[in-house]
Protein 1
Amino acid sequence: MSEWTFKRVNSGDTILDRYDVISVLGENQLGLSCLVNDRSSNQNYLFCQLSFECSAERVEEIQAVVDNLKQLNHKSVAALYDFIVDGSTGYISMEYIDGESFESHIKMRRERGQILGLKAAYSFLAHLCAGIELFHQHDFIFGGLTPRAIYVTNQGRVKSSNIILCFLADNYLDDASRMAY
């Protein structure tokens, strides 16, 4: 894991006197993922607390990329909402997807002896390609399409996620952390 230079958020913490941390969902080289509730709107979001320090220069660069990416909306891509900074700690705010990763979905089906039928596989792929095509049309490369970055919602819809996280990993993690990510 990356060397953290600040306090990790925990369940029960509050970020910027506005976002209540409901639960910590996971951690990787890029940061800590948590489910938060926005007190002002009563909406839940996925926050990624970044593992690296956000200097003024980094804040400006990340904010510009986030501002460009969050304008691109598609029903098959998890929404990117904002980049929030508290001191030198950065948080990426994204749509919380109520469901499971494609990796978990396939594993569960295998354990049950079920296969993903051709029709379902085609539907999943068509939805993913349609969402990713939007980003390619705007000269963004979606570089992190893995079974862990694809989600199946509780309604059976497929969504890709982590749009900004691949950019952050490529630009701000050291070589060893980037390879592990």
Protein 2
Amino acid sequence: MPLMETVKYKTIMLPFIRIAAIALVTLTMLAGVGCGPKLIKGRPPFVSISDMRLDRETLKTEFDITNQNGVPMTIESMDITVMINTTELARFSSRETLEITANGTEEVNVADSPDDFTRNLLASLDDGRLKSLSFDLNATAMTLEDGRLVSEHTGYLYPVPGRPGQYRAAVTQAKGLVRDDNL
């Protein structure tokens, strides 16, 4: 008789163990999906000055536009302005479509003829009268995915040692890139 009771006990417990195992696996998978990494979406592109140089009468500026999102970004139009106090140093405006991969960077260039005041400001960096120039960079992007995205930065422009007419930029504060989520 004890043999029959053991078999009966195992037969009853087997479906319960199977259901419990399936439930445990299902809950584990659902927890993994809910707690997994979240894609960042809707953040404005980070725009920086990667190179600036004054060649005779032309100021050439190279901007890096970085997609901070985990999904591709399609920029339909872009306006970038670099100001030193009330003086416009550089401006880029385009209505051409620019595709940036997720977490990728694209480069855009602009060449302009600066006025005498701007040339004198940059010359004061070259000859050492000024160590740096404070700037404000404002960028507005119209994207296919998120509409209008705005970013604002402040920073400093420095001369590149040993390369007259060439300048580098350092962003000190990104005003328009504050996270909305609490981490």
Protein 3
Amino acid sequence: MIFFGFFFECIFLIFCTILFILTFNSSKRKDLFKILGFGLFYKLLFFFFINTYVSTYSDGFAFQDDYDYHHVSKEMSENWVQGQFYSPKEIKYQAEKNPGYYYLNALVYSVFGANEINARLVNLFLSIFISFYIFILGNTIFSRNVGIFSAFTFLLLPDINFWSSLQFKDITVSFLTITIFY
């Protein structure tokens, strides 16, 4: 069941990404597909490495926040399936600090299954979308070469790859911030 949810989520996210790319003209579209291809290959490789390492040498969570995001969102998702809706403030993990990320993860868990890999995969695709926006902004402000260089440099940053492979709100906040600038 976990593999099916993961596979279905990958297909869904790739489909949404391709639909996003198709909204651009043909010259940008070709560059965005290159970024998508490289980003998927490199980030999925890094994703599986990080998640294998975390699963092998710990309880499956790199930090306490990773653990909290998963368990609070899982509990919210389970209650939504039962028809009970409540805010994360009623949960003991101090969710009132940033409830939006709990709601996003609970939605992902409700649709694709309550596995931390599913929420981490959303972060991975959001980081690829960030590279799209970086390319578009670099291309618009400077030139095509600057946009491509900036996007590929972003995709290769180790910290970004690490945080996008785990369940943290930093990538989501970065995505929303760059979306505002776009």
